[in-house]
Amino acid sequence: MNDSRLDILRHWLMGLQPHWQLDLATLAPASADASFRRYFRIQTQNPQFGSFIVMDAPPQHEPLEAFIRVDLLLREAGLHVPQILEKNEKEGFLLLSDLGNQTYLADLTEGNADSLYQAATNTLIAMQLASEPHVLPNYDEALLQRELDLFPDWYLKKHLQLNLSQIQEQQLTQAFALLIRNNLAQPQVYVHRDFHSRNLMVTAQNNPGVLDFQDAVFGPITYDAASLWRDAYIAWPEERVIDWVIKYWEQGRKRGLVMTEDFGQFYRDFEWMGLQRHLKVLGIFARLFYRDGKEAYLKDIPLVLQYAIATANRYIELKPLARILESTRQSSDAIS
């Protein structure tokens, strides 16, 4: 954010100061994400809050409409999302309640993982039970394909400087078609799209707090589970992942979610959905570096690539994709 935008933000906060008892001198960066949005924390004398989060979303890049709409939708579903206290849609500012600064990623340990993931499971099921069609954009074939195309465009060609052979191009196209067909065949629910350890906050009440939901869509039921347990930022032994997914599947079915009766099929759907996501993420992490100058995400590429290779190797239909991924590993390790 340039200085002129910061000046506009400060001027807006000055107008809110009397009502919310803002301590304007305490305005400080809180975090940034993989978009144009930035977040600030500001202290207050208001005993009900203690501090607020200020979102800066440049309207030409990040219109606030989607964030506001999804925030209200998830709040109605019982999720712990930031409360919108003030909004300035024209200039792209929001004053939000503060869910704290303790992420799942920072707090997860061997000892507390079961309880934290159970809380996340409860939240995920609550969101999915609230699902209705024609409320959020559809996670349709076109969107799935655009996401998958990030892998060859940004990861293979831009990041690794690799050009696939004609046969490999055909194999990649066939693998993408298999993944998309599987994803679209799953029951459709509300999908957060980034339901992972950096966007879940450890909170004293109604844990977890949920952030970064503005890109939510209506799509495959396993997507957010894959985000959560095949997390690009933290890895767990496969047996623990299976156990957590089983519990989610059992509890979801018990509470009325439409899920396949065979867990083996559900886990296959979970894996294939995760593979689609990881191919997309490889492209996104490369794009964040080359287009947006955000180098930090490069260090997370090896884990994502490891997930993708392991999953593709487990299914005979995806073996050609596994070979393509394995052929890139050495080049990727050298760059990352």
TrEMBL record:
One GO molecular function term of this record is:
ATP binding
Residue ranges crossing the lipid bilayer per the database entry:
none
**Which domain of life does the protein's organism represent?**
Bacteria
Q: What is this protein called?
A: Aminoglycoside phosphotransferase domain-containing protein
Ranges where the Aminoglycoside phosphotransferase domain occurs: 27-246
* A Pfam match: APH
Give the matching PANTHER family.
Answer: N-ACETYLMURAMATE_N-ACETYLGLUCOSAMINE KINASE, TRNA THREONYLCARBAMOYLADENOSINE BIOSYNTHESIS PROTEIN TSAE
**Any idea which UniProt keywords this protein has?**
ATP-binding, Nucleotide-binding
